[in-house]
Amino acid sequence: LKATLRLAMSMAAEKVIPGGLVGGIPICEEELGWIYNRPDSCLVSEEDLGNLRRELESLISSDVSVEIGTETYPDAQAKLASQKLALSLLASRIPLGGVGVVRVGDVTRLAPYDYGKLCNTFGPLRHAGYRIQGDGTGGVRLTWGDVSVCADKATTTAAILETRKWGVGRGVVSLGDLNGLKEVGRERKEFMLAAEYRQEARLRDIVRRVEASSGATRCICIAGPTSSGKTTFAAKLCTFLGNEGLSAHGLTVDHYYLPLDRQPRYLIRQQRSDCDYDHIESMDVDLVNQHISDLINGKTIEPPVYNMKTGMRDPPKRTFSIPPNGILVIEGIHALNPQYTEKLPQEQVFKIFLSPQTAIQVDDFNVIKSTDVRLLRRMSRDYLFRAHSASRTLDMWENVRRGEGKWIFPFQGQAHVVMNSAHEYDLSVLKPLLEPLLRSVPPTDANFVKAQELARLLDLVAGWGERDVPATSLLREFLGNGAYDEH
């Protein structure tokens, strides 16, 4: 329904707003809504919003059919003439076998790479529970379902829009723009470096906020969904803090699992497969609390060593401490959960939510999904460092996403800072490795459809290779050969 709603929204906007709307920037990774703007930078008026609501209702009530098809490149050029970003994409990557399009009556759109999720008509949108509102800055906010859950996403939305603004300044807002950067000369390299500098500028902003606390900050907590780059980010943050004379030391708390004989779900049937390692109940919360408190109070700890094969703890291999007035930097999927830091005065705790929220447009109405960027990052890391096939990574993805929905995203609203770890060129450097892996998933495999969807996405991207990715980049966590050697 979401993809169909975005399609209907684009058609309604083209009818009632001069020049239509562009964007479709998600307000958060869960795609609870999207933000659109006029391409001429004019503000959307209340009258425009009213007309947009009525036109969208009319389209939905007409129950017009939605068909997927193909066009030759010349025909697609003619039919997509008003869609500048779509034409830019086609000019940079002419697909083999024709251009995939969506036909709605006499209107043609470039088919999104996940077009398998489109409804056959607009009729089902009658029960979608959508809302069209102004976004407070002259744009349009289209929300989906229960909008109350969007209430604490404001900082996440701001991070995405800041990235979008940066892309506009660099002249790269779409895949067509990205593909158009020349390998000869320095265009691609300059874009890579600019993306790294943008992230490092945000790191310096965080350091300044910690400095401004005049020593009150003693524990920095970093959390985010899988493949956000948490481990490398924590290491870089310690380096940046150290450059300003602040002694910071990192501790990963994802290994504080309870031993198998204390796992609540294991104790019911004595079946290890019953354990949910994404659940907070699988963690030794008391030990995490005690160790954090001990470290802040100048004591030395022995971090646990969890053996994933046996489900038990191995003997500790090291001791760990921080100097007086030092800063403890912890990272892990539950790091923003208040249960981890309940023994500390809250003025001593600074929380960061990290996630790659890309703002790159596929075409005029669709943005690359951040969940797909993370999935492709994870697929690369799993293949290079865990010898997993693409299908095995896809097998685990549904459970991973379910755990994120329960234990990570609900706490993002508590973060003092939302850090966008997207580089906007992620897919370009991941493509040469991942495209063959995705194409190797056979039709008989249960993950074939999703593998083909991701392969269609990568087919729209020009492959760059990883040579010019800086050694200190968060992306090195998924590519290897990084300065921090984290993966």
UniProtKB/TrEMBL annotation:
InterPro entries for this protein: P-loop_NTPase, PRK/URK
Which is an annotated Pfam family here? Answer: PRK
State the organism named in the record. Answer: Octactis speculum
All copies of the Phosphoribulokinase/uridine kinase domain together span: 220-426
Q: Which GO terms describe its molecular function?
A: ATP binding; kinase activity
Name recorded for this polypeptide: Phosphoribulokinase/uridine kinase domain-containing protein
SUPFAM superfamilies according to UniProt: P-loop containing nucleoside triphosphate hydrolases
Transmembrane segments in this chain: where?
none
